[in-house]
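Record 1 of the preview.
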Amino acid sequence: MSVAALPDLDLTRVRSGPDLPVQMVPDLQLTRARDMGPVPVAPMAELDTGRAADDGVRTAAPLGAVVCRYCRNTQAAGLLCDNCGMRLPRVRPAAGAAVAGKPAADDDGWRACSSCHTPVRPGKPCPECGTRAQEEA
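->
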């Protein structure tokens, strides 16, 4: 089925045949550079890398209550803020290890996360993976 073109339609499609003969452009830089020959390499003694010499002292990970940098909520436990859900500046507990102050099993209302088995309170997001724990029945 053939359809006639609209008379007011501006045709912008490029024709399939070439309009001009192919011309070589002598100044066009191709993808490969020519051989530059031996380039002298010398260290730059005056270059400041912006780093101080390593003294071996490391900043201790924050312990206890931390303040969320997004909503300023102060929270004592967990890797995710209970108010806004953003990650808190804490150290992740080792896999399978109980967090200090948290029981490893179901006593005191703690449960294992269904995704990563980290101790979590029912109804709260998991501090490791963010999966919300199911409420107790």
